[in-house]
Design a protein that fits this description.
Strand order of the largest sheet: 2-1-3-4-5
Low-confidence stretches: 1-6
Number of domains: 2
Number of strands: 5
CATH architecture of the largest domain: 3-Layer(aba) Sandwich
CATH class of the largest domain: Alpha Beta
Mean pLDDT: 87
Number of helices: 11
CATH topology of the largest domain: Cytidine Deaminase, domain 2
Distance between the termini: 45 Å
Radius of gyration: 21 Å
Order of helices and strands: HHHHHHHEEHEHEEHH
Length: about 250
């Protein structure tokens, strides 16, 4: 139904208002823009909350991309002030935590296939490149999952120092690096290979291990561990420490 931009939701028929429709028909009956409208509650001059929701989706591309965006991107969006951004960010984080069985710290990464599925769920279909690191303990249980860097394609340069600093802070024994290729291609670039080599060199003296580097495309993933490339890079770096057990390799 087309409405004038200046017509506030309060003036709509009650059965058309997002909040009332959610209560009468359930949240599944609402569009993404209507769900956003319930969270932000009001729009701004000349734009109601549903239209603000549509504008956000147009800007970011999808709810998934909105959830992955930095807070600064939403704070700079017209019509969003800190209170609305906080409400949206809290809702996105709740949704992310609900998707983790009994909290992320209970997750045990048992193999490369499971690791690939985990990061794929968080990185696919994003409009720009995101680099995430999973920090694991000695039993390969997830200690933390951190967005390290994001930006336009080929511009993301994850800071190795920051990755290592967080590993020390969480007392991680091993790490899994991951990033997406918005183009959908999953072949590692030269910079991907160099970064993986640098991470191996930086973690070995600390007794940590890089278990995998996973590249996420639209529907498929590339595993440095499964391809054998991780082993090749490890051989290039001498270590006085005995190698820890690798992740179980699995075919896709």
């Amino acid at each position: 139904m087309t409405r004038k931009i200046s017509k506030g939701i309060i003036s709509w028929p009650e059965e058309d208002r997002p909040r009332e429709r959610l209560l009468s028909r359930g949240p599944h009956a609402l569009t993404d823009a209507e769900l956003i409208a319930i969270l932000v509650r009001v729009g701004f001059q000349g734009t109601n909350a549903v239209e603000l929701g549509r504008s956000l989706l147009k800007q970011f591309g999808s709810l998934r991309a909105m959830a992955a965006a930095p807070l600064s991107a939403m704070l700079n969006f017209k019509g969003l002030k800190s209170a609305k951004v906080a409400q949206l960010a809290a809702a996105m984080e709740i949704a992310r935590r609900v998707s983790l069985p009994d909290g992320k710290k209970c997750i045990q990464i048992k193999g490369t296939k499971q690791a690939g599925e985990y990061v794929k769920e968080r990185l696919r279909s994003l409009p720009d490149e995101h680099f995430r690191v999973l920090y694991l303990n000695r039993q390969n249980r997830l200690l933390d999952d951190v967005l390290i860097a994001q930006g336009v394609v080929d511009s993301v340069k994850p800071p190795v120092r920051s990755i290592i600093t967080h590993a020390l802070r969480t007392n991680a024994s091993s790490l899994i690096a991951s990033h997406n290729h918005p183009s959908g291609a999953i072949e590692p670039s030269e910079s991907d290979i160099i970064l993986t080599r640098d991470l191996i060199s930086a973690t070995r003296p600390l007794g940590m291990k890089i278990l995998d580097h996973i590249i996420v495309g639209e529907e498929t993933t590339y595993s440095f561990a499964d391809s054998g490339l991780l082993d090749e890079l490890e051989l290039e770096s001498f270590s006085p420490y005995p190698a820890k057990k690798n992740l179980k390799r699995e075919s896709a």
